[in-house]
Amino acid sequence: MTIHHPSFGQIDDSRVILFDTTLRDGEQSPGFSMNLAEKLRMAEALADLGVDVIEAGFPVASRGDFESVHQIAQHVRGAVICALARSGGKNDIASAGEAIRPAERGRIHNFISTSPLHMKYKLRMEPETVLELITAGNTSARNFTDDVEWSAEDGSRTEPDFLCRCVEAAIKAGATTINIPDTVGYATPEDMERIFSMLRDRVPGADGVIFSAHNHNDLGLAVANTLASVRGGARQIECTINGIGERAGNAALEEIVMALRTRQDAMPFKTRVHSERLLKVSRMLSTITGFDVQPNKAIVGRNAFAHESGIHQDGVLKNAATYEIMTPESVGWSRSSLVLGKHSGRAAFRDKLATLGYGDLGDNQVNDAFARFKDLADHKKVVYDEDIVALVDDEVRDHARIRFQSIELTAGSRRPARAELTLEVDGEDRTASVTGNGPVDAAFTAIRAIFPHEATLSLYSVGAITEGSDAQARTTVRLEEGGKMVDGQGADADTVVSAVRAYVHALNKLLVKRTRAEPEDLATDVA
């Protein structure tokens, strides 16, 4: 069976469309906000990865969101650029239409809640009113683009008969993609497969649209539910890099792509994703947001292809397939065992960067990272891959207005600690010398002296990146201000320097948050 889609032409039943919502649903996660430059960088990486649709934001939410979607639509090619809108929101559709206007191919994604719980308590609407808004929203969206998606928010908890009526109304009004989200991560794989099978069987016109699945991970079932949705007839998958998103996150793009690729015997479907670029994009997102994936994360976690057990090591040495169901190279990892130390030169360092997925760094970034590497190598006998990743991430991260320059400390048991700190603020070096209750407190007090702010420190966590007393410190700092919360990360062989880098990173993210005015009545958790 084939379907004609306005953006993709003829699509056969084996094709699965990848809809990435890292920049919209993913960015709604606490602490994960991005500025315009970071969003553009991620959007270009997603298009290069082979994603079919990039949901760039919710234009009516704020001027910043509108500008982000508009700029991505103007500059990013190779993927459909999608903007979110409420089916019944005032000005939502028009704002989304204007935002995607420069796109090579643009989509409006409108939504409204359909479950009894949401209609009664969130919308305070009767079912017939919801049906009217579905028709109005999709009809209006078709005035701006012929690629229109409609979502039934809380679709997995919607009564089957009413869900069929809603989907039929959306199709009649011009929707070309129908999304049934498991908004709160409540469903099981059997539920999702049954829902899509039912809609395809019962709804008139269902054979002429693409059905889409958007599953949240509250019960840890997002990927399983997504694959079950494909079995039920969904041919678009909505997901995010590293599985980021509201609450427990979304279905992880990298896991879905590799599940489909690895288990062709059970799921004979194909995507356009270049899987060997998955690790690079995953690391880029971690760098931008300051959130690393957990070590045992499937596909992109640092232990995904690591073997410590002697039995496993013996098996892998004889035949990698004994314990690896996919090759590291297929997702961007390298088997390189090159060990770097203080005698290593720039050429070896650049080669290591390439094997770790940083081959496209500019000369200035490489030089800055190499200088920090040489300093680190003077303190450590062995510099591990994780050390390289940490210091390079610090250098390529967009520090916006504030950058760490230097710090001098005096501390001991007989007198208060003193910190002399220099930061670059808006291109100008500023220095403060203050005392505090210990070196970290003195350093943080110096930051406040240089750049006064009212944010409160709610988390300060330090861990070692690798083993040994000479390991680099990885520090996480959480700042809160006016209900906004951001996390920053920093790494350095000196714990206090690591802490300052983390605080500065968090402060820069908070400054970005201050510019994002999001109306309280905007319900953006579509799925």
Automatic annotation (TrEMBL):
**Pathway terms, separated by semicolons:** Amino-acid biosynthesis; L-leucine biosynthesis; L-leucine from 3-methyl-2-oxobutanoate: step 1/4
Q: Which GO terms describe its cellular component?
A: cytoplasm
A biological process (GO) of this protein is: L-leucine biosynthetic process
Which residues bind Mn(2+) per the record? 25, 214, 216, 250
Report domain Pyruvate carboxyltransferase positions. 16-279
Would the keyword Metal-binding be found if you checked this record's keyword annotation?
A: yes
Q: Where is this region: Regulatory domain?
A: 403-527
Which molecular function terms from Gene Ontology are attached? 2-isopropylmalate synthase activity; acetyl-CoA C-acetyltransferase activity; manganese ion binding
What does the record give as cofactor? Mn(2+)
- What are the EC numbers? 2.3.3.13
**SUPFAM superfamilies, alphabetically?**
2-isopropylmalate synthase LeuA, allosteric (dimerisation) domain, Aldolase
Q: How does it assemble?
A: Homodimer.
Q: Which family does it belong to?
A: Belongs to the alpha-IPM synthase/homocitrate synthase family. LeuA type 1 subfamily.
Instruction: Describe its function.
Output: Catalyzes the condensation of the acetyl group of acetyl-CoA with 3-methyl-2-oxobutanoate (2-ketoisovalerate) to form 3-carboxy-3-hydroxy-4-methylpentanoate (2-isopropylmalate).
Q: Which PANTHER family match?
A: 2-ISOPROPYLMALATE SYNTHASE 1, CHLOROPLASTIC-RELATED, HOMOCITRATE SYNTHASE-RELATED
The protein's name in its UniProt record: 2-isopropylmalate synthase
Species in which this protein is naturally found: Ameyamaea chiangmaiensis
